[in-house]
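Model it.
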Amino acid sequence: MTTLINDFAQPIGAPVPGWTPRPQPTGVTLAGRHCLLEPLHAERQAADLDAAYRLAPDPRAWTYMFTGPFDTPQDYLRYAQGAAQSTDPRHFAVVNRSTGKAVGTLALMRIDPTHGVIEVGNVMFSPLLQQTPASTEAQFLLMAYVFDTLGYRRYEWKCDSLNAPSRRTAARLGFQFEGIFRQAVVYKGRNRDTAWFSIIDTEWPLLRQAFEAWLSDDNQDAQGRQRRSLTQVRESLPR
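Modeled.
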């Protein structure tokens, strides 16, 4: 890549012609084959979400979350009521299209329209959603909304550096690891060194193609199992 030099013989970044601040995300509904992403509605969805989370054999999925676990359905309802009113983070429920029940949540957060930067976070998928095509599709739908509809330049994923499953998921989805921010957060009475990942707009067309190919019928066998992993599909595509 050619380095640009200004009139003072200083290296400078590439121009971004015509850039304007991006729109704020709104409470849209995003439809896929396996799931819907809907704005979180506490009164309608909290009971289903709480029941789905309680299918886990233990509460370890909450270890790296800023909230939870919740002792009672009423405790989760109160949390969901607050979350549903927030616009940053803006929370979405993942709804199974076959059952109509909410089975997980995720959010857009740290929203920076001026610079076109946004983060996906608060990802809490129940056992009914984990490791299913719908879980990947939910991530894809939100990415597509951010890049294709809103036109953001950068999509971030952050997690506790000790959260190995989250780091593996980020890599599987195509995020690039950028480094560790030491002592970035204090939560639940303990330190968090934060691992940073990102996808930028120039990477998105290839990633979109990979998601679409992975989610296609051609990549599913008669039992609904993947023929090729998302990473294998992505690495097979011409760059």
